[in-house]
């Protein structure tokens, strides 16, 4: 098995966690692999200075135009604004010519727009940062944009959601190439979760809803997330914050933007998802642990939130830790 050549096109962008994080993942994998079975990573760019801060500059030594020879994996990192994808027509044409000769092509975060400009996502499933999914779908109606997953694979094309979701995707590439054991060792070295399944939502229940302005309600939201199996009825929650049920309901909706019941359901679905992904516990046990009361109630909630039943979710995303 020959070393895999990875070419990363570092796009100019104020946020570069994907660049450094992806390089760290490939480096950590190389530490655990024979030299002729690891990764040879090259960073190129359409610009000399990828990003600059006070006292620090990230510069690329080479232009993408200098790339020659076979490429195993081509990665395009994120850009600041969707319009930035159109600012270098030469790069777009280079990608369109190069991608057919590459085993797999990856767009991290808003790098998906660059791939789309090159015509590489035509007729494909793809994702990007949640704030830009609607814009990707508007500009490129032939792309089936999936706003929820943290990354999407369609054949040899891979795209990820925002920022750190790209690291989940890169870690998944390592697992795909050299197996789960090495990927787990990489994750442990980086104190990193192995690994969020690609179909996992971009938001946790805590992130997908606004936090209340009042401290008692913020604390209550955190408590709900920590105790999904508890009695989370409106009456019980109202008592915890010393409010009448009617006033609690009204204030919660005003500050959180959804009813207490809807928030509780999101928290319980998220807790159940984690158990389905990470354990082999039976669905009735998971439903009871997460406060659903019955497997049927959990099934309805999963259908409503994720468009799939618990059994189907587990069959797609279940992972088991290695001993």
Give your account of this protein's structure.
The protein is built from 13 helices and eleven strands. About 2% of the residues have low confidence. α1 packs parallel to α5, α5 packs antiparallel against α6 and α8 crosses α9. Strands 5-2-1-6-7-11-10 form a seven-stranded mixed beta sheet. It folds into two domains: 186 residues, 3-Layer(aba) Sandwich (Rossmann fold), CATH 3.40.50.880; 103 residues, Arc Repressor Mutant, subunit A, CATH 1.10.10. It starts with a strand and ends in a 6-residue tail after the last helix. The chain is of the alpha/beta class.
Question: Which descriptors apply to this entry?
Answer:
323 residues; alpha/beta; Rossmann fold; Arc Repressor Mutant, subunit A; 13 helices
* Series of H and E elements: EHEEEEEHEHEHEEEHHHHHHHHH
Q: Helical residue percent?
A: 40-55%
Number of helical regions? 13
User: In order across it, which strands form the biggest sheet?
Assistant: 5-2-1-6-7-11-10
How many domains comprise the coordinates?
2
Per CATH, the architecture of the largest domain is 3-Layer(aba) Sandwich
Please give the structural blueprint.
Layout: E1 4-9, H1 17-31, E2 39-45, E3 49-53, E4 56-59, E5 62-63, E6 73-76, H2 89-98, E7 104-107, H3 111-117, E8 125-126, H4 133-139, E9 144-145, E10 151-154, E11 157-160, H5 165-178, H6 180-189, H7 215-226, H8 234-240, H9 245-256, H10 260-278, H11 283-289, H12 295-306, H13 310-317
Parallel strand pairs: 1-2, 1-6, 2-5, 6-7, 7-11, 8-9
Antiparallel strand pairs: 3-4, 10-11
Helix pairs in contact: 1-5, 5-6, 8-9
